[in-house]
Write a structure and sequence with these properties.
- By secondary structure, the protein is α+β, with helices and mostly antiparallel strands.
- The chain is built from three helices and seven strands; from the N terminus they run E-H-H-E-E-E-E-E-E-H.
- It has a seven-stranded antiparallel beta sheet.
- Strand 5 and strand 6 form a beta hairpin.
- It is globular and about 45 Å long.
- It starts with a strand and ends with a helix.
């Protein structure tokens, strides 16, 4: 069965500043706490649709993801998981940013769909929602504050 995870947050920074970080498909090792190291395979630019990032998690896990779409005008990127030590299959995620004009902030919408074994469904849905997405929101907030 296809699982869907949707999370959103308001980031206290202008959309251009948040997008500058998130549009770089290889930036997550600089701001997300769970990522140890990351690289784009074959030396391709991290903004080229089709590029593959290969990264290691701090817990030792390894993941390869491919950038499927990138739109500067819509502040949106979509990527899929190619290989992973975590048992998620058919994982496709989209990050979308929208301007919050009240206070020049950013609305960040992050969603994904994936399949997994029924016995892993609740644990992995929680992991994606909390350990990746919610933790990512908190991490980008700290990153932007430290970079200011």
């Amino acid at each position: 069965m296809l699982q869907k995870v949707v999370r959103s947050a308001v980031i206290d920074a202008p959309i251009a500043r948040v997008w500058q970080v998130l549009r770089d498909f290889n930036s997550h090792d600089a701001w997300h706490d769970v990522v140890e190291a990351s690289r784009i395979e074959h030396g391709e630019p991290s903004s080229r649709v089709g590029c593959v990032r290969s990264f290691t998690l701090k817990d030792g896990g390894r993941i390869r993801e491919q950038l499927l779409a990138l739109s500067d005008s819509e502040h949106r990127s979509t990527y899929c998981m190619l290989d992973a030590t975590v048992p998620l299959k058919r994982y496709v995620a989209t990050v979308t940013l929208k301007p919050v004009t009240d206070g020049d902030r950013t609305f960040w919408h992050w969603e994904s769909r994936f399949t997994t074994k029924p016995e892993d469904r609740d644990r992995l849905t929680h992991m994606v929602a909390e350990d990746i997405y919610q933790a990512g929101f908190e991490a980008i907030r700290r990153h932007l504050k430290e970079a200011a």
